[in-house]
Design goal:
CATH class of the largest domain: Alpha Beta
CATH superfamily of the largest domain: Glutaredoxin
Strand content: 15-25%
Order of helices and strands: HHEHEHHEEEHHHHHEEHEEHEEHEHEHEE
CATH topology of the largest domain: Glutaredoxin
Number of strands: 15
Number of helices: 15
């Protein structure tokens, strides 16, 4: 018996060693069916990129791309196809494409983990000059409001200037690195769950643990959003989570939160100022070029978000330096209570909030199908495809039903809007009324909300 136990332990050890081994870049690219990259790019090997940057004296451009996620795919293809100008700029960097969070250092690469495309302009010594990549809502595949190829080129040019002035300008980048996170990598996150005597959250929701334990390269790929998912789930496990933390822990403030819309191609140039905003009261105007925010150099819209993210949501002041017609100026933005509030329903991590409908019902987009159903454009029409909420199953909801109203609300998309509304406005023991279309007839169902 002892012999078989030892054999079993040895076999388990072999399995875990195999899981822990880092797959080759070629194996990863093949398994994920990822895009071909240019000859200047280093694929999924950060150590090689850092070594080359040290050898050549060039800055790094580290692109983190969650390949399985559809969001930002079109923009990613444009970047990888590279026009002449983009090729020239990437030639001034050591560009590295990272497509798995599995091996990434979370103490160094801190960003909005709900993004599926995020870039870092940095020094080989780890100093971050700036970030690039922003998203603000659902369905905005190319994220036209906040990223563009021209905007990326502009940020890369700014990164080269920052690198040329380094280390004399190092003080401008001190705030680019956040506080050390609780977990240095996703394997530490997985180990947290392994070491628990009992998990009180639904273990099917723990994507990091499931991915780390899967030996298949594709299925075992840790998505960016799983890092933020884990932070929420661990807080639930430790009874420290409250849904009002969504605006401080999940949602990243946009420039619009302080009253400015930026020029997407020029990154740090103000395009529009909201007349009733903190920015307007501070005297900012369209055409102003933001230079620093909270003492940090700005290369992009993502840098503005990074500077705003650690600020409290209950009112604070933040200093901004800017240029107007070549003149250097400064102002203080007086941010009022609640300034951080923004849409978060599109975020993948928001699905970890409770309560939720516990239903997957994507909006029907086909105009002809909507017309046959008698649903007007702009109205809700979520076709039910999956019902993990067992209470909803018992209430009679089934695949193929079309949800046209939730608690009297019949406009907008069910597949992201209520991810935002429910955790903020409803309690865990609440029920909710759905109006559905089934076989051409309307029915009303009362379902309990999903709490685990």
């Amino acid at each position: 018996m002892r012999k078989y136990a030892l054999m079993g332990a040895a076999l388990l050890m072999v399995v875990w060693v195999a899981i822990a081994q880092k797959p080759s870049p070629m194996d990863v690219q093949t398994a994920l069916n990822d895009l071909e990259v240019g000859e200047n790019w280093i694929y999924n090997d950060l150590d090689k990129g850092v070594a080359m940057a040290k050898e050549t004296g060039k800055p790094l451009f580290v692109l983190i791309r969650c390949v399985p996620c559809l969001s930002c795919r079109a923009f990613d293809q444009e970047v990888m196809q590279s026009d002449v100008d983009l090729d020239r700029l990437f030639g001034e960097y050591v560009p590295v494409r990272i497509v798995r969070m599995n091996e990434l250092d979370l103490t160094k690469f801190q960003f909005d983990y709900d993004l599926s495309w995020a870039g870092f302009m940095m020094n080989a010594d780890g100093t971050i000059y700036g970030r690039y990549g922003t998203k603000s809502g659902p369905g905005d595949d190319k994220h036209e409001n906040h990223i563009s190829i021209s905007g990326l080129k502009n940020a890369l040019e700014r990164g080269l200037k920052a690198h040329a002035g380094y280390p004399n300008n190092a003080a401008l980048f001190n705030g680019k690195q956040g506080e050390k996170p609780r977990f240095a990598n996703v394997r530490e996150i997985a180990a947290y769950w392994d070491n628990l005597e009992k998990a009180t959250v639904n273990t099917e929701r723990i994507g990091v643990k499931r991915a780390i334990q899967d030996g298949d390269i594709r299925k075992g790929c840790v998505h960016c959003h799983m890092v933020k998912d884990s932070n929420i789930l661990i807080a639930h496990q430790e009874n420290t989570w409250t849904n009002d933390r969504v605006y401080t822990d999940i949602a990243w403030p946009l420039p619009e939160n302080v009253g400015v819309t930026m020029d997407v191609d020029k990154n740090t140039v103000v395009k529009v100022v909201d007349p009733n905003s903190a920015a307007a009261k501070a005297g900012l105007k369209a055409g102003d070029e933001l230079v620093t925010l909270n003492g940090q150099a700005l290369l992009s819209i993502a840098d503005i978000q990074w500077a705003l993210f650690p600020l409290p949501g209950d009112g604070t002041n933040v200093k901004v330096q800017y240029k107007r017609m070549g003149n250097e100026m400064s102002a203080t933005l007086a941010l009022s209570d609640g300034w951080r509030k923004t849409d978060f329903g599109w975020r993948e991590s928001a699905h970890q909030l409770r309560p939720q409908l516990g239903i997957w019902a994507p909006q029907i987009e086909d105009a002809e199908k909507l017309a046959k159903l008698g649903v007007a454009p702009g109205k809700m029409a979520g076709e039910v495809r999956w019902v993990p909420n067992q209470g909803a199953q018992r209430a009679g909801l089934r695949n193929g039903d079309v949800i046209v109203s939730v608690d009297g609300i019949d406009d907008g998309r069910i597949d992201w809007r209520f991810t935002q509304i429910l955790p903020i406005k409803y309690d865990l023991d609440d029920t909710i009324e759905l109006v559905i279309l089934r076989d051409g007839a309307r029915q009303t169902l009362t379902i309990p909300l999903q709490t685990n």
